[in-house]
Amino acid sequence: MSLSYLPGTASLLEELDKKLMVLLRDGRTLIGYLRSVDQFANLVLHHCIERIHVGDAYGDIPRGVFVVRGENVVLLGEIEEREEVKEKLREVSLEEILEKQAVQQAEKEETDRLRAKAFKERGLSYTAETTYEDMY
């Protein structure tokens, strides 16, 4: 670890060529190697994948080179692929994870619809809170 502190996005220079996980505002999770960064925290990720989690299952979509606008980054950090972490999750095919994601989204929409109906019957209004996970 470096003893000198770099202010602002300059601190990202220490993360160049490391494998990072990036959480975006719309809820997507990207994993790739940081190849470039600028003063606005725009990122270039190489060998990038988009990882989708549903319950204890996950699937990866290969994305290649991915450019991320800095204002869309919520969280980023260096990751290590360790076997004990992979034991807690099981990898499934892309088709299966997309199907699970669609089922999860449909269940949430049905729950929101029923909740809105119950509120309306009581003379109240209900607006579903949108979280970053719901946006995609």
Going by helix content, strand content and strand pairing, the class is alpha+beta
| Major beta sheet, strand line-up | 5-1-2-3-4-6
Portion in helices = 25-40%
Number of strands: 6
Low-confidence stretches: none
Order of helices and strands: EEEEEHEH
N- to C-terminal separation? Answer: 36 Å
Largest sheet: 6 strands, mixed
Helical element count?
A: 2
How large is the share of residues in beta strands? 25-35%
Mean pLDDT figure: 87
The rounded Rg comes to 19 Å
Shape: extended
Short note summarizing the structure:
The chain has 136 residues and is α+β, with helices and mostly antiparallel strands.
Features:
136 residues; six-stranded mixed beta sheet; extended
Give an overview of the whole structure.
Strands 5-1-2-3-4-6 form a 6-stranded mixed sheet. With 136 residues, it is an alpha+beta fold. The chain contains 2 helices and 6 strands, in the order βββββαβα. Helix content is 25%, strand content 35%.
